[in-house]
Amino acid sequence: MNPSRAAWLSSTLATCLVGTASAGPLVWASMGEDAYRLLRRAGAQMEQVEPHALPSETIYLMRVDEDALPRLSRDVHEQLHRCGGYIVHASRAEGRQTLARFKSGVGPQGKVSYAIDDAAEVNALLPQLQESQVRSSIVQLSTAYKNRYYTTTGGVNASDDLAQSWKQLAAGRTDVTVKQFTHPSWPQKSVILTIKGTTRPKQIVVIGGHLDSTVGFTNENSIAPGADDDASGVASLQEVVRVLLTSGYQPRRTLQFIAYAAEEVGLRGSAAIAADYRAKGKKVVGALQLDMTNYQGGTNDITMITDYTNAAQNQFVRDLAAYYLPTLVVKNDACGYACSDHASWTSNGYVASFPFEAPMSQYNPYIHTSQDTIDKSGNTADHAIKFSRLALAYAIELGSDGPAPVAPRK
Ligand code: BES
Ligand code: ZN
To answer: Given 49, 58, 110, 154, which residue has the most CB atoms within 10 angstroms?
Structure first.
């Protein structure tokens, strides 16, 4: 028997003998200590484990049974009430490079000004944001498909439909494009709407959320509405797009609004996009992540995630909230390693922030279940609209790069 067949047979036998559901291919993944311990306790198949000491915690890079990962995420949420975040890597080398970049924490972008100097423009547009628009987008995304998983028909259709509706928003603007970003390893595409900057088009400001949904092991017929996780984030940012475009706002920097594919399976969509941008030397001056915006779960309005995000930009986002939305209660918390797509920007050397719906002890308990529906938020988007307001202020203040130009005299 040739050696590879022998290895295959012995691993198959081991799987059968242990009797776990362990049947998936091995993938490269990195995760924090808690997640790693849980995986070990569950008896998940893993190989070539290597610890990497980051300044804040030890991260484990390994080859692991892909089918153990959905359960891992569920167990960490249930037992530890935080994310069992992990990043899936294309190879060991790519995993090591990602961890090395987390360590160095240096980004390719230059210094940016966080001065708040576009109040006239921001205050003119804030009242145009409508809760009813955000609500209907959440309802649409969470009811039009059985699920938006990265491999299913629903997931593919959600991407195609979103691209279509963003194209309608962009109609008539020659400086606005909508493109789907194809991922060669799975069928769901990410969607990117770009408003080209007038004077500094090469500098990009990113506002993103993830389009996919999950209930753990998800297939064609799984019911995964993902109303909060993360139809809410996509709906919140889409409302910013609507208002910016209908008002004719033109940023000096380029603005990109991104609905990422395949976040729920290890940040795969955003990791591909952020790595592509880094490889091309694209200057992303800042990224804002909106993932779960519509479940208040306590008295805080906005919880700034402090780990794997950029402290200076986080302060800018807090300053924006204090200046434009002074009634909001803004607090801090940490969500753990790689809990959402902001980590993909951070690991590629970019500046990212993640304003979140609630503290870790109070986030929506229905995520990743068939019960993640908008009725859990009282059938309104009252909470999500706050994140639209914050994102609008961020888009204009960072997108304008200095005071907005004085309107020409008539
Ligand atoms: N929206 C969640 C992230 C989240 C959940 C942040 C609860 C804070 C509190 C995201 O979609 C998610 O589910 N992330 C996974 C990790 C991912 C890399 C597979 C998770 O939390 O298990
Ligand atoms: Zn999720």
So the answer is: 154
